[in-house]
Amino acid sequence: MLNQEKLDRISFLANKKKREGLTAEETLEQKALREEYLTAFRKSFRKQLDNIEIVYKD
Predict the structure, then answer these.
(1) Mean pLDDT of 5-17
(2) Name one Pfam family in it (predicted).
(3) pTM for this structure?
């Protein structure tokens, strides 16, 4: 999972993009951070799905 500092940076860049736009360097940073976030999210979600056990009532 991403640390709070990286999550805060993602939020900051998203807000800055809405307000005034991003530099080319910030755009690349945002893309990399988002990809890292999505990778961590998918891994966590997959782990949750793997732990689900379906039980049928007989």
Answers:
(1) 96
(2) DUF896
(3) 0.79
